[in-house]
Specification:
The chain is an all-beta fold. It folds into 4 domains: 98 residues, Sandwich (Immunoglobulin-like), CATH 2.60.40; 96 residues, Carboxypeptidase-like, regulatory domain (Immunoglobulin-like, Sandwich); 101 residues, Immunoglobulin-like; 89 residues, Immunoglobulins (Immunoglobulin-like). The chain is 0% helix and 62% strand. It contains no helices and 35 strands. It has a 21-stranded antiparallel β-sheet that branches. Strand 2 and strand 3 form a beta hairpin. The radius of gyration is 27 Å and the shape is flat. The relative contact order is 0.10.
């Protein structure tokens, strides 16, 4: 480490290094296989650094390397440090996850050899996909994804927009298939509100050279609900609610919320579903002259019981109501200097991850966040003379309707050569 006083210049900092190497060949053993791309990464951990994970990476795409001769790779690493190597290789359109490989880098200029060989067989799944109901399905982006394990493999393909037909070129193994439908609602009170449905997984076991037909043609059911706010901030710009399949893993529901009336609507395949994923709301802020002065979000985990939905059935889901409070931080730069991009994060009964404010003067700024009642730890930052600078951490307790202002939060002036 280097200690630097204000106004001091530290000369002759030598950043040169003679690296060690880890290298090898990616192959399948068969000329009928094609290695199309790879992305490999070796990571070491240096806890003294501000960003302690240090990566060395290598990648290539658009390849046509035969599987029998394979494709060589090489990574430069720091001598003597402990590393973990992993990554992805695409073979015949299937993404293979490279298993973790832990190693200690050799001395400067020395080479450690690690080859990766993948056993590849061939099988096929095909069929049709469709989604009914009062929704406008984005047929150009309906897709089917397949995942297998040991080693982890995945592949995704889009269905034909005109016919709904799809084909997946897989390997002989047990695969888990999910169909995905993005759509826009057309029903009253939800016109233009987007959502999506990912079906619970379908398990298939394939033998070498086997072809199997699996159709995903869904007559859906529905779960409806509303979101409303009371207190200091009752209007939001948008947001979404999500749910997961409860009987068979892998399914997920998502619906945007209509900010005009608070309505949302899940489109489901028949079966059991439950809330239990993140809920998001987004807020915009304006001054007395209606000038935009910032935005914030809140994230909250929403649990629930199980909702069983049949074809064509509409089930009443959760009506979510939250009291709200606002917290405004006022920033200024002690000793002069220019301030920009005031921001904060809040952690408590909800989490506010992305809160952006505005500059009111070159040396002053503000950021506002909407929260539900409870106690929060708030961390504040802004850029001062080009450097991201902490403006402190605060503990705040708010009740429904509170409008808290924390004024005069001063940040230091940084002078570094």
């Amino acid at each position: 480490p280097y200690s630097v006083a204000v106004g001091e210049t530290v000369p002759d900092v030598d950043l040169s290094m003679t690296p060690a190497f880890v290298e090898g060949t990616i192959s399948t053993g068969s000329a009928s296989d094609t290695i199309e791309s790879f992305n490999l990464r070796a990571r070491t951990y240096v806890p003294e650094y501000h960003e302690p994970n240090l990566d060395s990476s290598t990648k290539a795409s658009g390849l046509t390397a035969p599987g029998d001769t394979g494709r060589d790779y090489r990574l430069l690493v720091a001598p003597g440090l402990d590393y973990r190597l992993w990554g992805d290789v695409v073979i015949n359109g299937i993404n293979y996850t490279v298993p973790y490989y832990d190693f200690t880098a050799l001395g400067a200029g020395e080479i450690l050899t690690k080859d990766f060989s993948f056993e590849v067989t061939r099988a096929t799944v095909s069929g049709t996909v469709s989604l009914g109901g009062p929704v406008d399905v984005d047929k150009a982006n309906v897709s089917v994804t397949a995942t297998a394990y040991n080693p982890t493999r995945s592949i995704s393909t889009k269905a034909d927009p005109a016919t709904g037909e799809y084909t997946l070129a897989l390997t002989a193994d047990t695969w888990y298939l999910n169909a995905y439908f993005p759509f826009v609602h057309t029903g009253v009170g939800l016109e233009g509100i987007a959502g999506n449905l990912r079906l619970p997984r379908t398990e298939v076991t394939l033998s070498p050279d086997e072809s199997m037909t699996i159709d995903f043609n869904i007559n859906p059911g529905f779960i409806t609900g509303t979101v409303s706010l009371t207190g200091a901030k009752t209007e939001y710009t948008g947001g979404w609610v999500q749910a997961d399949s409860a009987d068979i893993p892998g399914g997920k529901l998502s619906s945007n919320i209509n900010p005009e009336n608070g309505k949302y609507k899940f489109v489901t395949s028949p079966g059991d579903w439950k809330y239990g994923y993140w809920f998001l709301l987004v807020f915009n802020y304006y001054d007395e002259s209606n000038n935009y002065i910032g935005r914030s979000d809140i994230w909250k985990y929403i649990p629930s019981g199980i909702y069983t939905v049949a074809e064509g059935e509409t089930v009443a889901g959760l009506d979510l109501t939250f009291g709200t409070a606002t917290v405004k931080l006022m920033y200024y730069v002690a000793g002069g200097g220019e301030l920009s991009s005031p921001t904060l994060r809040a952690y408590g009964p909800v989490t506010a991850m992305n809160v952006w404010g505005s500059n009111t003067k070159p040396t002053e700024g503000q950021a506002i966040v909407t929260l539900i009642p409870g106690t929060y730890n708030i961390s504040a930052w802004a850029r001062v003379d080009g450097s991201t600078t902490s403006f402190g951490t605060f503990t705040v307790t708010v009740a429904d309707g509170d409008m808290v202002v924390i004024g005069g939060v001063a940040g230091p002036t940084l002078k570094v050569t």
